[in-house]
């Protein structure tokens, strides 16, 4: 029974593949979209378990297309991460 539950949880997970300016691709699990100052930010988990935050914008007229841009301002990055931590307190272990 536990195996079915775990499989269902894995199927619900949202994975995306991003390509950088050098053509390198990385796959991430999208943990959540957090809104901060009228901008949406994707909280992504890399394959090596590193949380990364990208500005997220849905492409108008394309339901399954989005643009992900690295957050340039470390203060915004930190604030979005703190909002994510607060939202998921008790769900994820945020200890280092």
Question: How would the blueprint of this fold be written?
Answer:
Layout: H1 2-12, E1 14-19, E2 25-36, E3 39-46, E4 51-58, E5 66-70, H2 74-87
Antiparallel strand pairs: 1-2, 2-3, 3-4, 4-5
Question: In short, what is this structure?
Answer:
The protein has 96 residues and is an alpha+beta fold. It has one domain. The chain has 2 helices and 5 strands.
General description of the model:
The structure is a single chain. By secondary structure, this protein is an alpha+beta fold. The chain has one domain. The protein contains 2 helices and 5 strands.
Low-confidence stretches: 1-10
Return the string of H and E elements. HEEEEEH
Radius of gyration: 15 Å
Give a quick account of the main beta sheet: strands, pairing sense, barrel closure: 5 strands, antiparallel
Structural class: alpha+beta
Tell me the helix content. 25-40%
C-alpha end-to-end distance? 32 Å
Tally of separate domains = 1
Strand content: 35-45%
Determine the mean pLDDT. 86
Q: State the helix count.
A: 2
Order of strands, main sheet, comes to 1-2-3-4-5
Shape assignment: globular
DSSP summary, beta strand count? 5
């Amino acid at each position: 029974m536990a195996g079915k539950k775990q499989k269902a949880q894995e199927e619900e997970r949202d994975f995306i593949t991003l390509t950088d300016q050098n053509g390198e691709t990385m796959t991430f699990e999208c943990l959540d979209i957090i809104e901060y100052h009228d901008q949406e930010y994707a909280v992504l988990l890399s394959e090596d378990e590193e949380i990364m935050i990208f500005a997220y914008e849905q492409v108008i007229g394309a339901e399954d297309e989005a643009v992900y841009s690295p957050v340039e301002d470390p203060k915004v990055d930190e604030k979005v991460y703190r909002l994510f931590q607060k939202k998921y307190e008790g769900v994820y272990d945020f200890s280092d």
